[in-house]
Amino acid sequence: MTGETTRPELLAVSGVTKAYPGVVANSDVSFSIKAGEVHALLGENGAGKSTLVKMIYGLVKPDSGSMRLSGAAYAPNEPRQARASGVAMVFQHFSLFEALSVAENVALGMENPPKLRDLASRIRKVSEEYGLPLDPDRMVGDLSAGERQRVEIIRCLLQDPKLLIMDEPTSVLTPQEVDILFKTLRQLSAEGTAILYISHKLEEIRALCDEATILRRGKVVATCTPRDRSAREMAELMVGATLTPPERGTKAKGDVALRVAGLSVASPIPFGTSLKNIGFSVAKGEVLGIAGVAGNGQDELLLALSGELRTAPGTLSIDGADVSALGPNDRRRAGLVAAPEERLGHAAAPDMSLVENALLSGATRQGLVKNGFIDWPATRSFAEGIVKDFDVRTPGTHVAARALSGGNLQKFVVGRELSQAPTVIVINQPTWGVDAAAAAAIRQAILDRAATGAAVVVISQDLDELLEIADNFAALNEGRLTQPRPVAGLTIDEIGLMMGGAHGMEVAHHAH
Amino acid sequence: MLRLEKRPSPSRFWQGATPVLAVVLTMIAGGIMFALLGKNPVEAIRTIFWDPLFNAQYASYSRPQLLVKAGPLILIATGLSLGFRAGIWNIGAEGQYIMGAIFGAGVGLALYPVETRLVFPLMIVAGIFGGWLWAMIPAILKTRFRTNEILVSLLLVYVAQNILASMALGLMKNPEGGGFPGSRNLSQIPSMANPELIPGTGLHWGVVAAIIVVIAAYIMLQRHILGFQIKLAGQAPRAARFAGVSPERLTVLCMGISGGLAGLAGLFEVTGPAGQISIDFNTGYGFTAIIVAFLGRLNPLGILLAGLLMALTYIGGELASFTLGLPSAAIQAFQGMLLFFLLAVDLLTNFRIRFGTKKEAV
Which residue in chain B has the smallest CA separation from A363? Predict the structure, then answer.
């Protein structure tokens, strides 16, 4: 896998264009992958990475342009043809049945599945060969996200692919699990399987990939060898602008603003994670970062803090006053604002205008409702203030929330909460799916609020983000929260162990 | 080949145009149906839509009927539309309408022969209470036990119909009625009557109430936080919880408002146009109001127009079966077509139709 140039070319994409109504997803994209190469496809959300790999996997047909695989013309009409040609893909969102076993799930994805017992032994064999421990008889519903990903990977490996496409594979993994995955991918690459690796995590790409193709707004803007470039250089190629890291003001910590003790709540979400005896406190001016692999209780924690889930008496206090029994609006009155992860449908109503969405959570603290009647002019100026202060790109405040891009809507949602002069701020995934420039602006705004004395809880799956803005760090693991520790001096290994390590699988590659 | 393509945002033009298109398509399909029944379609359509208002021979009788029929439809449909907007499906307005009439008439008959001006207001309160109470059954079962309000409210219609029959034959039977089923004629008792306020117009207190309710609902949806919460709960239930809206409270409230208004409509009907509690007192206003609510796009002003249109097809339909001998089932099918076409062409608001053979893997 050390970039020799003698390796034969496996896949060549030339001049591929694909347009959807209102947007050109890919415009004249060309790049090539050699056999055994780990090739990164890098770009912000909406840069056209997904459309491009969907075309390679036969899910979408290009409007023009052509592809060649191993020298022969390649134009798959459907994923089955792509698989038959040796192209396999692991999606970001798994397509597994929780109530079936690993082997049954793998069999469901095959054209001619062998007997279940034979399949189970093949799964065992492949999983040992590639250091991906997996028991074929276990129910998928009992597996962690990392293990579920292994099911998907092994499903692909059983087809003996020439090209393996992986879409953001590390977003659901702990650092230790990432190590296991990378070892597997390097082994595959050494055996001659090419890997097309989609990500926006630059350090990972530097650690793993031989070549990178960088997309911006549907066009190839650069190709480079990641090891020779710094993460900052690649980020700037990806964004097309220079980036400045957020500035932290020096601040004196104040009194405790939010105190959580003995918080246990059953999850209202099917297959959700219940919270178990969570306790922490956040002082004025402090940012507490809460990490964790997706599905370890992040959504439930936000609901319990925002008041959408009621909690037992004495579990939650703001400025010393017990707020456990209060609903969302009474907690807002007490000074707590929250921004849920899901922008469309939870933090904002998709078909309502920005003005109406400003009212949604701003009514209480901004005094936008008098005697039950809505003060629309005041609501409109509140919305206009958010748009102006947080640089939300929109034709006006009358447009529907769903018409905004993810980054702009996120700036609006976060801005709406930060504009209410809160004492406690809770944000789940502040920059999920947001472009780098918007993400930087959001992080800066959060730090600015903390500097003026707000207590901030940031729940995020992006470790880099937490290390950048948090003072203290804790991790959610199966509904339990670790003791918060100061960020300064934490190593990535310690963080990984706080997040639950590799769920007891750390030794996987040592057995080899 | 036809393809449907989702619009980036709902089309304002089609939002307004779909009801009109639906009426036109109903006329065409209904015309074909009438032709198959051996009637002249043009004459049948004209009899339904034109003659009730402008035919010299029939208009003097049928024109006032327009408001008489539209009043309860608008009153019930406006109440239902609030729940429908919030995703709360009260299908049992017919039952609540019956119970409003029974409770209202019951209070009046219990006070008979007291003659004070307080009797009618008391009956109005009782009518609202009866409808509200009947709607609270599905509401509380839903909030407490997660039952489906569609089923419960619908099945309670049949319970209400049986209570109505037993009232007409037993408890409320007119003691001076010579053994015939049915209560005293409330419209003949001055303290209990809901008379025609301006002769020859069909305007009665129920129509006045309908107009007031339409205006109130319009203001509530535009300016009041409750209207905002109703819209929010219907469009994005999780966002509504985030905004502090309690789904249980909203269910009880919307079911209560729609039940109370249906009860009110029943009270005005039993004291006015119908006159008495009888076995066949209910004529399906509660069900037709569902069509009216959707025909009016769940918008109070739209419902006002839709109620008038629906009343017209009712009166015109009766006229057509009287003058042309059209079977009443054909008229009902005609009204059903209206809802069908409305829902079908509603697709155009969110999708556009493309012609072409371009295929794309999904």
Answer: B243
Determine how many CB atoms are found less than 10 A away from the CB of residue B356: 8
- A136 secondary structure, DSSP code: T
Interface test with B, best of A346, A375, A412 (most B CBs within 10 A): A346
d(CA A209, CA B226): 55
| Same-domain check for residues B139 and B243 | yes
CATH number for region A256-498: 3.40.50.300
Give yes or no: residues B98 and B133 share one domain. Answer: yes
Q: What are phi and psi of B255, to 5 degrees?
A: -65, -40
Q: Is B1 helix (H, G, I), strand (E, B) or coil?
A: coil
Q: How confident is the model at residue A464 (pLDDT cuts 50, 70, 90)?
A: confident
Q: How far is CA B75 from the centre of its chain?
A: 7
Q: Which residue carries 């002082």 as its tokens?
A: A283
Q: Do B223 and A340 touch (CB under 8 A)?
A: no
Interchain proximity A328–B244, CB inside 8 Å: yes
CB–CB contact B235 A351 (8 Å): yes
B328 touches chain A (CB under 8 A): no
Q: How far is A77 from chain B (nearest CA, A)?
A: 8
Nearest CA-CA distance, residue B328 and chain A, Å: 42
What is the least distance, in Å, from the CA of A75 to any CA of chain B? 13
Q: Does A345 touch chain B (CB under 8 A)?
A: yes
Question: Is B55 part of a structural domain of the chain?
Answer: no
- Domain span(s) for CATH 3.40.50.300 in chain A: 9-239, 256-498
Are both B290 and B337 inside the same structural domain? Answer: no
Q: What would the pLDDT profile of B281-300 be if each residue is shown by its tens digit?
A: 888 899 999 989 988 889 99
Q: What's the CATH code of the domain at B211?
A: 1.10.3470
pLDDT tens by residue, A92-135:
777 888 888 999 999 987 878 888 889 999 999 988 888 888 88
Which of B5, B242, B360 minimises the CB distance to A306?
B242
Name the CATH superfamily for A9-239: P-loop containing nucleotide triphosphate hydrolases (3.40.50.300)
**Residue among B85, B242, B246, B362 with most chain A CBs within 10 A, to mutate:** B242
Q: With an 8 Å Cβ cutoff, are A364 and B235 in contact?
A: no
Residues B319 and B349 in one domain: no
Per-residue 3-state assignment (H helix, E strand, C coil) for B56-123: CCCHHHHHHHHHHHHHHHHHHHHHHHHHHHCCCCCCCHHHHHHHHHHHHHHHHHHHCCCCCCCHHHHH
Local structure of residue A226 (DSSP, 8 states) = G
Q: Which residues does chain B have within 8 Å of residue A61's beta carbon, measured at their own beta carbons?
A: 360-361
Q: Which residue of A has its CA nearest to B247?
A: A308
Are residues B355 and B260 both part of a single domain?
no
Residue B189: φ, ψ to 5°: -100, 115
Residue B159 distance to chain A (closest CA, Å): 35
Query: ipTM score of the complex?
Result: 0.84
Residue B8 at interface with chain A, using a CB cutoff of 8 Å: yes
How open is the CA angle A214-A215-A217, to the nearest 5 degrees?
Answer: 155
Q: Taking a C-beta distance cutoff of 8 angstroms, is the pair A156, A82 a contact?
A: no
Q: Looking at the structure, do residues B152 and B240 belong to the same domain, yes or no?
A: yes
Amino acid at A247: E
Minimum-distance CB partner of B236 among A338, A345, A372: A345
Take residue A204 and report the two structure tokens written for it: 């990972």
What count of other Cβ atoms lies within 10 Å of the Cβ of residue A3?
11
Are residues B164 and B292 located together in one domain of the fold? yes
Measured between beta carbons, the chain A residues lying within 8 angstroms of B241 are 308, 328
Q: How far is B3 from chain A (nearest CA, A)?
A: 14
Residues B7 and B78 in one domain: no
Q: What is the mean pLDDT of residues A377-381?
A: 96
What total of structural domains would you count in chain B?
2
Domain range holding B267? Answer: 64-326
Residue B152 located in a structural domain: yes
CA of B345, closest CA in chain A: separation in Å?
20
